[in-house]
Amino acid sequence: MSILIDENTRLLVQGITGSEGTFHAKACIEYGTKVVAGCPPGKGGQMWEDKVPVFNGVKEAVNETGANASIIFVPAALAADAIFESADAGISPIVCITEGIPTSDMIAVSHYLKDKDIRLIGPNCPGILSPGKCKAGIMPTGATAPGKVGLCSRSGTLTYEITAMLTEAGIGQSTCIGLGGDPIIGTPFIKVLELFNEDPDTEAIVMIGEIGGTAEQAAAEYIKAHVKKPMAAFIAGSSAPPGRRMGHAGAIVTGTAGLASEKKRVLAEAGVRIAESPADIPAKIREAMGV
Amino acid sequence: MKIHEYQAKSLFAEFGIPVPRGKVARKATEAGAFAAELGEKVVLKAQVHAGGRGKSGGVRITGSYDAVKVAGEMLGTRLVTHQTGPEGVPINSLLVEETLNVERELYLAIVVDSASGMPMIMASEAGGMDIEEVAAKTPEKILTAHIDPGMMFFQPFIARKIAFGLNLSPALVRQAVPLISGLCRLFQTKDCSMVEINPLVVTDDARLLALDAKINIDDNALYRHKKISAMYDETQEDPLEVEAKSKGIENYIKLDGDIANLVNGAGMAMATMDTLKLVGGNPANFLDIGTINDPARVVNAFRILTADPCVKAVFVNIFGGMARADVIATGIVKAFEEIEIKVPVVVRLAGTNVSEGDKVLDESGLNLIRATNFQEAAEKAVAAAAGKLS
Known about the structure:
heterodimer, A: alpha/beta, Rossmann fold, about 35% helix, B: D-amino Acid Aminotransferase, Chain A, domain 1, Dna Ligase, domain 1, 6-stranded antiparallel sheet, 4-stranded antiparallel sheet
């Protein structure tokens, strides 16, 4: 098994006719994902690349094709609208790849989703990959292998890097998820940990955090109380100067809670093995698993 | 994006938040004229994008007769505070303001609280101090209240809760409620990522005013705030960072080490810096080249990295996802054609199109230090910067 997406996922691509949307929709199909519909408003009735029907609205796409997951590639100024439309149609999970969405738009999205049973991954993220089953994202697939370790990360490229390191070390993955680098994201660590914790086929969890915010602290509390599976973590940004934004809007140290050292401390206290560098992760997760 | 205090105060005034009387001056004579209008005594405040002005001579109280002289001493100099580097930031303008008789100094701010996904008001009776210190040592002295987006519009009860929490008299609560409400409306309508009043003062004649004003605007929302975008002041930024931005490299931050690095992805860039430190090196910068697929951008990045005289080695660490390793490799070859690169260059490519990228580098005949794995590459970069590898 895996979490969020698998061989039964029927993917809708919002922004399928744009250059990014086209490129990555093709890559998802190549990987074996069932891409069933596309959604650029105004082009309804057409066939994208002669194989995927295009609809003017998400609701219509869902009714016609049974789409049960969506991935969003539309520009930042229109992205919140795209998330709302998918959520309104009841799609879950929704994966938003788009980067640069205004925070206030995400405050509204986050409020709308608060009491709904809908999982939003992102924005500003690489998406989800369940190796050997389905890809709803933009990760390179060459370095992944099916297996029993779940991986979640706030950083995109580090997701690729550490997944590749795991694969090289002979450790396969159940699902790899990039959660996104913005201050407000649909799914923080704590929710994904819950899903991995309940997934019978995930035996261990790798978590990749970074400076800024308190998501790692919330995760540590949850891990302490609920997670029995072995875990290893890397926190990026030990060497970052305070007060400077390290690329991601969320990656900025303000106060002590945002420091890498503080996050490592609370996670270690919760029983998570801490890797001091990405290359250290395979050894640490092995150590945690006792293999 | 940061804006100046005088710009923040003009926004405050638009939203009904009382501020001291004042005007911005760019010349000493102008400052003198404004001072004369304001009264016998004025305060001259350096308009710079850095905190800690008060402790470093950036805020001076003077008699109006002397304002021209004092303004002349401040304008055109660079202010060094604990938040700036040793080179400081230029003082190109001064806010000339009336002085007030202050009885109490309070703190009021609104930030985005990632944990709840809502804006959050923070207030304290311990104003005028470093609020992070207050938060660390005496967290009970900080009041917080969330602005729930479900209420559609800001509701005054939240402002009352804060105002009474600050132990204000009923007369002052009546001033505080519209002030806090105005600040919230400003925060929401102008896409702020932070607004801060430190201190918010109570004067001896029982008025409540914003003595200082700090506003950060969400960069991602600038496209819908043209007037505020025009307030961008590049003189306050690091010149290398401004140059990077003009060349399309948004995420460049200069640091004080000697190993320049060029990485794709913010998390990877941080992890590269961390790993360099771990193996005994010192990063000269943070640079996320992003997911571009244009060799010219790589050349520009090399230009910026090698322009820093502290740099003793360049470390290219790429894990291609959306960015393709062969495009980066082509960019490296072009950089060597267009720029005189005197320092050793360590290259590690992985991910999308890595074999094509390696081929480009192999065929270039360039003297590059190559590595395949992350850790090994970082070790080589440290050795190269120490002159032990070339």
